[in-house]
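I hope you will forgive my troubling you with a question about protein structure. The matter concerns a single protein, recorded as an amino acid sequence and a row of backbone structure tokens. Please examine both parts with care and let me know of anything in them that strikes you as inconsistent. Thank you for your consideration; the sequence and its tokens are set out here:
***
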Amino acid sequence: MHPLSRFLTFIRFSHTIFALPFAMGSMVVAARSQRGFPGWRIFGLILVCMVFARTAAMLFNRIVDWEIDKRNPRTVARHQLFGKGAAIAACCVSALLFIATTSLINPICFLLSPIAIAIVFFYSLTKRFTHAAQLFLGLALSVSPVGAWLAVTGSFALPPLILAAGVLCWVAGFDIIYALQDVETDNREGLHSLVVWLGVPRALVLAGVFHFFLLVSLAGFGLSAHLGAIYFLGLLPVPLLLIYEHRMARTLDVALINKAFFETNAVVGLLFVIMTTVDAFFPHTIIHH
């Protein structure tokens, strides 16, 4: 395997698709209230920041879980893809590049960038002392729509905060489903999660509750940002996609869970960013409140 391919596999680069659409959607809506498209420079800087932040977060996760991953059948081969020393160096470089890139956006993004890095790093430690680890992962990814909004406007607003709450619920719900694969390992290693705490049946019910609040938040984001009919019509398939994901999760078949987890959540994110972007370019469909 090519060294770059090994690195991208090591950090599960394909999973970047989960947080990126919500950052891009937030950027588009923020830009609409300013002057339309934010410009290729800001677009590129937001994209680069997302990649650097997530890369640093995943590398930190791999580093702190290095020995645990060696004892987990699902992750036992990870340390063979990339050396620990190289992972530490790459993590530091990615974090510094993230902070440096925010300095090219605006002062508030630069000032808040160390806090953002601290949040995404902190998640990797939480399963050692709290069952709310899935909520902390949701918090880590919920930073992205707020950061994108700040990059465009330089100020806080209600819509990205509502969207951030939705991202938190979305991620917490799908990470409960993802954690089903590791419940035996987590119990053996003394690690915490909502699945370990509640057991599989009740944890799946809670995942459904989180995803219900995701739907509420997506609707709230559309209303607070004065989005139109295109956006709301685009949300109609989302409940069906989530129902499909939960049905697959209840089979407890690891292959089906992985397939549903990646495909369903990728489509949810893709639908969101496409419909948000299309709606922004067709303001005549705005629903007046």
